[in-house]
Amino acid sequence: LLAINPTAQVAFMYLFGRVADRVGRKPPVVAGIAGSGAFALVAAAVPAPGGTPVQLLVAGAAFVVIAAAFSAMTTGALAFIGDVAPPDRESELMGLRSTAKGVGGILGPPVVGTLATATSMQVAFAAGSVLALAAAGLAAVGLIEPEDAATGHVDPPADAEPATD
């Protein structure tokens, strides 16, 4: 069951990479963040009545949803960074994105686990979903699409300092 997520990511990374090249970087980023919220809602339904086969089916669906969400967000974000980062900071900014993701992976589980212990797993996942959907809304409103995501060419802002070697 745990292999569903990485297996699905193999296909979804390629798919959403193509999507990011065709429609721009913002749509996969926003869809990926919203998909994380959808994952939390599906995961909250895992202990629903219906017995083990139904629970396994719901858990499997949750892993497919998070694989798609992670893949969309990752490919869109990395392509976005590649488009807008000055050449001498591209790797640094991609590393910062990975670091932020890692910090979320370190802090998220204890916070959600504490909330689940104090309330219930369903409440904890619902709270995570609300946060993810709010973040998707912020990204939808605040994230500015690079000028030419389809070609990967973005002219730097007029006030940008020239890159130095």
Structure description:
Residues 156-160 have low confidence and may be disordered. The protein has a single domain, classed as Growth Hormone, Chain: A. It is globular. Helix 2 runs antiparallel to helix 3, helix 2 packs antiparallel against helix 5 (121-142) and helix 4 packs antiparallel against helix 5. The chain has helices at residues 4-23, 26-44, 51-84, 90-118, 121-142. It is an all-alpha fold.
Short description:
The chain is mainly alpha-helical and 165 residues long. It has a single domain, classed as Up-down Bundle (Growth Hormone, Chain: A).
Through-space gap between termini: 48 Å
- The number of domains is 1
Shape: globular
Indicate the structural class.
mainly alpha
Unreliable parts: 156-160
- The CATH class assignment is Mainly Alpha
Give the overall pLDDT as a whole number. Answer: 89
**CATH fold-level assignment:** Growth Hormone, Chain: A
Estimate what percentage of residues fall within beta strands. Answer: under 5%
Write down how many β-strands occur, each being a DSSP E stretch of 2 or more residues. 0
Radius of gyration: 18 Å
Biggest β-sheet strands, sense, barrel: none
Number of helices: 5
Please give the share of residues in helix: over 70%
